[in-house]
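2.7 Reproducibility. Because tokenized structures are sensitive to small changes in the input, we list the exact sequence used for AMP-dependent synthetase/ligase domain-containing protein, including any N-terminal residues retained from the expression construct. No trimming or masking was applied before prediction.
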Amino acid sequence: DIWVSVLARPALFLQLEHRISQRFGVALDSQNVLACDDLAALTLVIKRSSPSLSPIRTPEYQSNKPKSELISPIKATPYQAQVWLACQLSEDPGQFYHQAKLSIPNQPTHSDVQWVLDQFLSQVDWLRTVVLKEEGRLVAYLLSPKRLSSATQATVGSQSLRRDGLEAAGKVLVSTDMLAVLYQPEPPRLVVRMHQILAPEVLFHLLTEDLQLAFRAKHDGQVFDVSPSLSMGHTATICRLPSDSSVRAYWTETMAEASADLKLPLDRPRTRVPTFSSACLRFDLAQGVIRGLSCPTEGNPVAPLGLWTALVGSYLGRICGSDDALVDVLLYHSVCRGEPYTLFPGHLACPLRVPGAASASSLGDLSAVLSQQLQRSVDHLTPDHDVYAGLPRPPAHPLWHPVRVSVAVDPVEWDAEAQSHPALWHDIIFRICHSGPSPGMTLQYNPDLFDSATVERLAANLLYFCQVALTNSPPLTTVPLVCPAEEHLLLEKFGRSPSEYDPSDTSTSVISLVRDSVQRSPHTVALESHLETVDYTEMDARVNSLARALQHRGIRVQDRVAVIVESRPATVMAMLALWLLRAVYVPVDCTLPEQRQRYTVETAQCTVVLNMTDTRNS
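Resulting structure tokens (single pass, no recycling of outputs):
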């Protein structure tokens, strides 16, 4: 059996209970387990019983296998799936939460487990990203919480990092509720242990990259071996150091100094996002400060201790309530390197190279103009504002996908509402920042909609706009949003045909090429769909018949004809018939809302609307 443990709000619990009971025919055995002021984590745990020899149905189960194979002893590989979600729940202290256990009978399959997880996640529409890992029978959903308060730490005792035996394992350099750093002399290595909600893979890469940079600068280009060891309960990342005594002494002293900056109790509420102060990093908290050490500029562009402090502080900041810390750290990396910097999908930071120091007011004006121009572009994609006024926009259609854009500048937030509620997360968030050693730009984007190459091209255009506007001080409304490289790409590569087209040469037109195919292979299949198959002879006859009918209706050269289309052979025939008459073919997707179809027809100034969705031979 699979036992499902759910810790959730009553509304979410009732929806999940109803769906599970419908699928498996059993009810959840629930109980009220706690009431607290602020619970910011929801947990769904699905686990199989301890390892034993028992007949279980594997994901590779085939229904045609003989019964003897199904009941033969199979080594049951245990697995555990956890979902950590973050939300802002009701502040009502009397709010109860439900914990339930469900025993799913009939030897549940891997798909049953996946189904329960999907049902749980489907109720959380504000969920940003879920990292799905599959290692054999292991299914793990890991998500760094947006907000995890001290109340949650007190309520769910198992969330704190287990430090049992750390003193015996090595010298503890840094120790908090969520992270511990140890130095082990034999063999020389650093061991970093952290709780899984710290997104250990991301933090591990950030940490080791910074340590490698500093180590190469300190020890004449040497590198140390990095060997990560990941586990579900906590993460231990091991950085093996050279055995040289001076190297060990240097890093022992370094981490000892860092430990003084990193001892931060999590019960101190966060009051503001971290800010940069000249050449050092400074994180201001309600009752304490995480200091960043000075950043040397010669020989080592990245301060190892300062960035190390910033990294851990940023992730503690994410738990306390803001993603801005991570964005600032990436921007700091980008400014120090002097080039765009990204670590994982969803974030990109770029430095702004402008002469002199750009003031916050000029950046604010620039951000406002960018916001207006980008919003104007969105308005062209969503013309019917009155239709959706005050209402959520309908699901985006593949042919009509307006991108919601927000623009922010520090210290002025142009889209503060989107930052305060995770449900209002936009597909793209563009920021101009003036909180570091030089201005910078950050892009947060939805990696499910945009690949990294597309975002980098967008960032190049925005950087060009900002640099031209801040360098030459032209009227901001006259600065183009497309950089020269993008303009060349659009006009020369995408817009130029592989060969020159002469309109007077009728032998190169589509109609003439189709006629050649009709004469050369009349019985070859020209169009095929799940409804019908048409050869060139039949297609030619139907195209000519439709062209004569349209000509009889008064269609002339250069007339614009809107065709309500769907994916059928008749659509292609309508296009060829209009081109045969030298009319203009204007396709209108039949699945778009009626207001959108009407807008397309009116904007194109079509004289005739041809509906190809009702009849087969139109």
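Residues 360-381 form the longest helix (22 residues).
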